[in-house]
Specification:
Order of helices and strands of chain A: HHHHHHEEHHHHHHHH
Order of helices and strands of chain B: HHHHEEHHHHHHHH
Radius of gyration of chain A: 21 Å
Helix content of chain A: over 70%
Largest interface: A-B, 54 and 52 residues
Oligomer: heterotrimer
Helix content of chain B: over 70%
Strand order of the largest sheet of chain A: 1-2
Number of helices of chain A: 14
Number of strands of chain A: 2
Largest sheet of chain A: 2 strands, antiparallel
Shape of chain A: globular
Radius of gyration of chain B: 19 Å
Chains: A mainly alpha (345), B mainly alpha (291), C alpha/beta (280)
Distance between the termini of chain B: 53 Å
Number of helices of chain B: 12
Largest sheet of chain B: 2 strands, antiparallel
Distance between the termini of chain A: 27 Å
Strand content of chain B: under 5%
Chain lengths: 345, 291, 280
Amino acid sequence: MRGDRSERVRRDQIGVALLVVVMAVLPVLLSTAYALTLLNVIGLYTLVTLGLILLGSSGQVSLGQAAFYGLGAYASALLSKDLGWPPETTIPLAILLVAAAAYVVGLPTLRLAEHFFVLATLGVGIIVNVLMVQLVPLTGGASGLRDIPPLVIAGVRVATDRQYYYLIWTLVVVALILARNITSHRTGRALRAILASEVGAAALGIDVSRYKMQAFVLSASYAALAGAVYAHYIRFISPSPFSLYASLFFLIMAVVGGLTNIWGGLVGAAAVTVLDQVIRAQLPRVLPRIGGEYQTAIYGILLVLIMIFFPSGIVRGALDIRRALGRVHATGRAGHGAAEPVDGE
Amino acid sequence: MLALLPQLLLTGLTVGSIYALVALGFVLIYNVTGFLNFAQGEFSMLGALLCATVLTWHLPLPLAALLAVAAVCLLGAATERLAVEPAYGSHPLTLIIITFGVSMAFRGLALMVWGADPYPLPEFSPGPVLVLLGGVLTRQALWAIGFSIVVVGALFFFFAHTVPGAAVRACADNPFACRLVGISPRRMALFAFTLSAGLGAAAGIVITPITGATYDMGLTLGLKGFVAAVIGGLTNAPAAVVGGYLVGLIEALTTGYLAPGYGSAITFLVLLAVLFLEREGLLHGARRRQA
Amino acid sequence: MSASLLDVRDVSRRFGGLVAVQRVTFSVASGEIVAIIGPNGAGKTTLFNIITGLVAPTSGEVRYRGLRLTGLPPEQIASLGVIRTFQNLIIFSEMTAVENVMVGCHRWTRTGLVDAALALPATAREDRQVSQAALEYLALVGLRARARDLARDLPVGQQRLLEIARALAARPTSLLLDEPTAGLSAEEARHLLDVIRRVRADGVTFVVIEHNMDVVMDAADRVIVLDYGEKIAEGTPQEIQRDPRVIAAYLGDETEDADAAARGAGEVAHERGLPDRGAH
């Protein structure tokens, strides 16, 4: 069993090391502005999705993740633009504010059973988006906020795609390590127990609501971090990237990567963002007549298929398939008829 | 200010009757399967758009409506069999996400088939509007309100006084006992999806002469229907209908007296308030289901 | 009364028109092994659910060391040392056997989110301590060899033992076992009884729902008999064996059936063939 654990630890360590190396080298190989922007977007989405996955690890799904992403962006943008505070202060401040907001939202809603919580986060998402559009004096309404101050770190102005690339992916690595640690140890075991059975977890003295709240506040904080960095990176924000549609998009990323697998955030964000780019580029050629959110159909079907066939995400799904194939192969060679041991009754 | 009130109340009742029908669909599926079908609103959209298409084949409106409702019933059954049924028994989140996926798929496909422009439907019985207490009520609004009342009555009769209705109720109470007496809960789920889809489609068709039909109308209708169903406590059909009218009225009043853009935000504030107030009761039910 | 650890006082629970538990009163002294027996649907599991806070009683109250448990959430009752297992087995199926038992150690360990996030040395120390303890509990119930297997891959009997090991790992002061020997082989059941006796010697109190009368006769200090949600008898195993009401309840004589019909509870009779209501 010690071997089991250290094996997982080593796998994660190798994963992180690999990620650091690949991400350090990547900008040298891909240096077009398009590639860098795409990678930056993937990095930001990874942060947002990691939040959803931390939440998923406690057995919850949120449809308000884009709202927290947006709140982080608006909070940091407004604090730095209107009050003139430096972004390196307003980003952490925005995260704290959003965490507090998530706490307040979670207080009444986290006690609810799954689908009520989903509904509540959906409601919060819609309310936040309506406020972004309607509170014109504060948010600039649908036309958004311009001229958001740039980020300055240690006297260096962070402005280019490349600079943001290194900043964003450093944050991704740190966030990933934190998420990995949180889903290990006593806290991680409690979360996994809650995921398996809230009743069973509570019967062992695990304070289910408390852990769910921690996961929820943390998931909102991850989104807020991404949102705040996004605001100072693009330097313009409007309500549309933070709509219900965006929340669904993040949910798809989390589902594709695996709702409880911390590596799923990275895989899901990368896979879905690239897929989205491909669809946007290719689908009009196949179906020239249509515009708008036609890709919804593809995402919807994708969502259903993944939940039916790979409910743990494509990473685990692929591993399971490989293992199953390996088993069939092995038993085939051994010449046994029945491949599976009968599992209880 | 007050002069506006009768008109707002009438408008609220009209849209409320549609929300009530959508809410009934949720309650029906929830009672039988124990989860919320987040694709419920899309059935209304599909009903309305299919009806508009069938109408272009020069069929009379009642026949077109009937065909559209029947087609959506089939789609509802297909949804249950193809998307939901394979995932029974998995984590509740899986089913929630699947119904979301179904809703996105329907919305996207509708956009591909019908495009983004609204489709009209003629009024069921064209004629001059009625003036009631200083407010204006279109004949179609009367159809909507009347239809919702008839459907609620019919459902009530069905569940209280017919054998299949009693079977559905029994199934909701105790799936195990249901199997013992030879009723399959799976078949009941299929039935609930088919009936809910039909209800949703009918609601969509009835409201379209007033609002027009677009590929994305299901999202709003579905969300308002949820709120109505949750206000009603999710298992109680008459309460869900009352919830539907409440949501319609709240929406009409906030649109009339507050800035129009806040309508959906207020509706969801009501939802959060209801969830907050009911959490003890809801929690208790949830615990028992899980144990 | 100072000697009693667990007090169930006049507890009733209705589900709709159905009375699952009817004015049940009993006490358990510290260090006792009390068996609760009764036909299917007698309300045994509902009683456990009430004691552990999963179901609120319609009336009556439960006290533990004089402290009122009724109204407390399940996790607080568990953290007071009242730990239970479930008739329908709640194991964390995607975790390994040893991880399941490590979750059981939650009650007496302390590291939290921040310790974990920063991987403070305390977490590593605690992990070592907990995995050591978990292996010992697995060894105690005879599952040491299966520590690294996923819980869902174990046969039902071993899953039941795993659930018991997990409950023991919580270092309970009272352990409520719901049909612990169901699905166990005779040998496994005998071994489990040894474990229960050994743990009891350390001062742990047991309340056990059990169908296997040999086990009850062998292990219980005292037996409580429930039928139709009511306590119909209480005494030593020998007394219970001779009690005519108990014999009637188990054999189901005619007066009993007439009684049920008179209460207009056709559902009750119907329910008797089903698993315990509380389990739904």
